[in-house]
Amino acid sequence: MEIQLPELNFTPRLTVINEDQIKQIHMATLEVLERVGIKMTHPRGVALLDGAGARVDGDRVRIPSWMVEDAIRQAPSRVVLGKRNGERSVFLETGKTWFGPSLDCIDYLDPITDERKRFTSEHCRISATIADAMPNFDWSMIIGMADDQPPDIADRVIVRQALTFCEKPLVFCCKDVNSERDIYEMALLICGGKENFEKAPTVVQYSEPISPLEYYDPAVEKMLFSVEHGIPLINFPAPQACGTAPATFAGTIVQGSAESLSGLVLAQLARPGAAFIYGAFATIMDMRTSVFSYGASEMSLMVGAMAQMAEHYNLPFFGTGGCTDAKFCDPQAAVEATLQCFSSAAVGTGLIHDCSSWMDHGSLVSPAFMVLVNEILHNVKQYMRGLPVNAETLAVDVIERVGPGEHYLQDEHTLKHFNKVRYSDLFERMIFDKWQSSGSKRFEDRLREMTQKAMAHKPAALPPEVLNELDRMQSHWQ
User: Fold this and answer.
1) What is the pLDDT of residues 413-447, one digit of tens each?
2) Residue 432 domain flag
3) Domain residues for 37?
4) What is the pTM of this model?
5) Does residue 458 form part of some domain?
6) Phi, psi (5° rounding) for residue 385?
7) Is residue 473 in some structural domain?
8) Residue 465 near residue 188, CB atoms below 8 Å
9) Are 41 and 59 in contact (CB under 8 A)?
10) If we measure between CA atoms, which residue out of 460, 97, 134, 478 comes closest to residue 307?
11) Per-residue pLDDT tens for 84-123?
C-alpha cells in the first residue's frame, strides 16, 4: 500500500545569537553611532550627513538613531549580480549563500614547486582561470596585487585580468576614484553598456572604514562614486578584538556593525535605494604573535553573529570563510577552511569571501588551496541540501519488496537514487591494496593533479573588438 505524504524539506540552520541578543547588539550599535559617532573629513560626505540631521563637531560626526533606521528601511533587501554575459547569477537574499575567493594578496604559492613569490598579473590570470573553472565559486575577486606593473595602474591591470579570464561577477577594490572610473568603464564595455549593467551589475566595489570608526577621504570619494553610478557597495570594516576593537566578541560586533551601518547612512543620503552590502571582518588579534587571524574559530563565531544581524536588518551580507593562517595546503589549512565554510553556509546569508585563496593571515594566494576549498564546498553544499522526506525517500515499499536478509544493489530504487551520493576525486575511499595498485597517490599528489587540470581550463574569450578597446583604455591609464 502506497503511503501518501507531503514533501518535507528542511535546510540545516545554525544560529549563534538569539533574538534578545540581536536586539541588544542593535541598540548598542545605535548608541555607539549616536554617542561616539565616526571620524570623517571628506567635505561632501560631512555635508550630506550634516544636512540630513547628524551632529557635526569638527571631524566628529554623530549619527542619530532615526537616521540609521531610516537608512535601513530605504536600502534594498535584495541585490542581484550578473556574469559578464548578462546572466543574473548571484541573488543576494535571505537564506542563500554564495562563495568566492579573496582580494589583494601580495604573495603567490606555486602549486607545483611550493615556491613562494610576489604576486603578478600572470598569477592573476591563473587564479581568475581557476575561479572560473571551480563550480562552487559563484563570484570572484581581484585576488592579488600586480607586483610586475607600475604602481599607478596595477589595480586596473588586475581588474582587467580578472574580467578577462573569469565570467563570474567580480568584487574589486582600487586606490582612488580615478581608478574606479576606469574600472566602471571596463565593466560597461564588457557587459554591453549601462542598461545591461543596471539589470545585473557585473562588478561590486569593496570599501573598508578604518577601525575604530574612521573614514579616510579617498574611501568616501569611491563610496559616493559607486552609489551614484549604480555600483553595489560593500562597506566592510575589519575590527580586531584586543587591537582595533574591544576584547569582547560582542563589543567587536557592535563596533563593526556601527562602522558598516555608518556607510549605509551615507550611501542612502547620496542615492536613496542604493545597493548596499553590510558586514564586517571581525576577528581577533593573536596576542602571542600580534597577527590579524584569518583562521581563528572566534572569527567564524563573529561572522555568524554578523550574518544574523544582517538578516535582522534585512540587508545583504558580506562575510568571511574558507581562509587560513597556514602557510601551505596542510591539515591546518583544511581544518580552518572547513569550519569556516560550514559555519557560513549554515548561518545562511550573503556573499562569503576568502574561500580558497587567503592563506598566511591574508597575504598568500595558493591555486592548490583554491581547488581544495572547492572540494570542501562540495561537501558543505551536499550537507546543506538536507534530507528530503516524502514517500519516495522513506522507501517503505522498497524495504518491503527487498525483504529481510537481502540486498538493494540491483533494485530499481537504488539505480534511481545512488547518484545523489557525492564522490570526490580528491578525497579517496579505496581499500589499501587497491590504493597501492592504483599508483599509491597521496593526498598532495591528487591535489597537485587536480590543480594542474584547473589551471588548464579555458575561460570563454572576450570578443577581439572588446580586447582591442581594453588595450586602448589601458594605454591612457595614469
Assistant:
1) 999 999 999 999 999 999 999 999 999 999 999 99
2) no
3) 19-72
4) 0.94
5) no
6) -70, -20
7) no
8) no
9) yes
10) 97
11) 999 999 999 988 999 999 878 999 999 999 999 999 999 9
